[in-house]
Amino acid sequence: MVPSIISFLVSSFILFNTKNLGAVALTSPQDISALKAFKASVKPSSIQPWSCLASWDFTTDPCAYPRRTHFTCGITCSPDSTRVTQLTLDPAGYSGQLTPLISLLTSLTILDLVDNNFYGPIPSSISSLINLQTLTLSSNSFSGAVPNSITNLKSLESLDFSHNYLSGYLPKTMNSMSSLRRLDLSYNNLTGPLPKLPYNLLELALKANSLSGSLSKSSFDMLTRLEVVELSENLFTGTLEPWFFLLPALQQVDLANNSLTRVEISKPSNANSDLVAVDLGFNKIEGNTPLHFADYPLLSSLSLRYNRLRGTIPLEYSRKKSLRRLFLDGNFLIGKPPPAFLAADTSVSGSLGDNCLQACPGSFQLCMPSQKPSSVCKQAYGGKPRS
């Protein structure tokens, strides 16, 4: 008799609490208002029946549990089910503007709208999301400037606005974003010089914009953790000075397709460097092939192709055991290639072609494409080039 009563009471308790769990409104009213405004700003015709936004039915509380038929995806809530902590949409082709009322979701740690068709400006009110750690708006159609207020996001660790139509200068106070580790604004229409960068950056990607000016040491001051620099396809000019390759954590550099005119390289201190790959191809770099790249112990890939380099290929390059890929094609290099590069057992791939080299047979893979006509080489050196 007693076990039956206990069983009944337990079943009633579970049923009562399950019903109440679904019925009681848990989510903060301001979060519900923000979610409603967010969905209302998306064109209904772009909300596919199978998509996350299609399941957002506000007759049900967004954070109430279980959410089996409504709010099936797109949001994550706090453990107590009162605040929305993540808004991560599926790439379903949603089209619309990002509502300024997104600022009401003040407990958001992640906002990810990648691979959709959102357009218009990024609202400056996004700076109210003070707990945000990841902000990803890449592969959309956002336009206008990067809002200056974005620099108020002191907890932000990853910022990705790549593959949009953003224009104008970068915010001058970007260095105040002390938690930022990864910055990707590639494939936009940004202009102007680099500002002073956040000192905790690990990855900097600004590829395929119209950024200009020289690379100033002040922009990279105190960036002791910077590992990856991706600045190709811009309009940077001037000299790449010795301090750049001495950044202590630097591993990969891509500055191809700019208008740099000189490169100055120093030996790494105590022959200690993590630099693995450098691409300086398709610039306007003059002078001799930088000798001191051979002093970077881990360097395995180097491209200086299609510049205006002269003189001979440093013998030290061929003695460098870590080197696996070398592209020096499209310059005005003279003399004979180091014999080790032409050996049958060479481990180096790449190209020494389209230069003014002697004894670099066109049948040899590393010497392809063929060398420049002698008339072009004579003109480049104001007469017969010396070996």
From TrEMBL:
Belongs to the polygalacturonase-inhibiting protein family. GO terms for cellular component: membrane. Keywords: Cell wall, Leucine-rich repeat, Membrane, Repeat, Secreted, Signal, Transmembrane, Transmembrane helix. Pfam families: LRR_1 (PF00560), LRR_8 (PF13855), LRRNT_2 (PF08263). This is Polygalacturonase inhibitor 1-like. Its main location: membrane. InterPro entries: Leu-rich_rpt, Leu-rich_rpt_typical-subtyp, LRR_dom_sf, LRR_N_plant-typ, RLP_Defense. The lineage of its organism: Eukaryota, Viridiplantae, Streptophyta, Embryophyta, Tracheophyta. The keyword Transmembrane helix applies. It is found in: Membrane; Secreted, Cell wall. PANTHER family: OS01G0750400 PROTEIN, RECEPTOR-LIKE PROTEIN KINASE 2. Residues 29-63 form the Leucine-rich repeat-containing N-terminal plant-type domain. Residues 1-23 form the signal peptide. It comes from Populus alba (White poplar).
